[in-house]
Amino acid sequence: MGWTFRAHAGLAAGLGAALLLLAGLTWLPGGPLPVVSGWPGAVAVLPLFPVFLAALVRLMLTGADRSSQWLAFRCLSGRLRLALGALLVAGVVVLVVNEAGAGNLQAAEKRDGRYSVLDTTPHARERVEVSRSRYVAVLESDQRTLFAVPGVLLVAAAHLVLVAGELRRAEPRR
User: Fold this and answer.
1) Rounded to 10 degrees, what is the CA torsion of 144, 145, 147, 150?
2) Residue 166: which residues within 8 A CB-CB, separation 6 or more?
3) ∠ CA 40-14-170, rounded to 5°
4) Using 50, 70 and 90 to split pLDDT, how confident is the model at 30?
5) By the 8 A CB rule, do 138 and 108 touch?
6) Contact between residue 24 and residue 143 where contact means Cβ atoms under 8 Å apart
């Protein structure tokens, strides 16, 4: 496998692991993470699009069918599959647990000293005023989602790139 595939996969896996770590840190006591206010949150999530799209393009350029992709995945080392699989499972667990506890509240906002959230209950979609503790809980839940979704997608991109690299390596030379 070429070094560009390894570098691409390493970047995707590293960024994904960092975002999943940030998602996990939102469960620690002390309130929401200050990292997401303003541009640092955007910088954390922005690399998702070019990295993920490049991974998809690399995999499509191999022209392999699903059974060949599965065989290429099986050719990866067991430790690598285990590490990336553990990251993927951890990200999915974070998302599932977060969605189970979030309820129908999202988009926490503080305006004029009052705390409000968007209640997305069907047939009652409106902003409602909440206590500060509920506001903080909804804000942390939003941050968890903001970090976990791109984290899972970046780890999946690492999988895709490594499979594309294995397929390229196994390709007969002309």
Assistant:
1) 160
2) 1, 72, 73, 75, 76
3) 140
4) confident
5) yes
6) no
For the cut 80, the answer to whether the pLDDT of residue 45 exceeds it is no
CA–CA dist 96, 134 (Å, integer): 20
Read off the amino acid at residue 97: V
Contact assessment for residue 127 and residue 118, using Cβ atoms and an 8 Å cutoff: yes
Q: What is the mean pLDDT of the chain?
A: 82
Q: Are 12 and 158 in contact (CB under 8 A)?
A: yes
Query: What pLDDT, in 10s, does the model give residues 129-172?
Result: 778 777 777 778 888 888 888 889 999 999 999 999 988 877 76
SS (H, E, C) 107-170: EEEEECCEEEEEECCCCCCEEEEECHHHHHHHHHHHHHHHHHHHHHHHHHHHHHHHHHHHHHHH
CB-count exposure of residue 141 (10 Å: 0-12, 13-18, 19+): buried
CB neighbours of 81 closer than 8 A, spacing ≥ 6? 73
- DSSP conformation class of 46: T
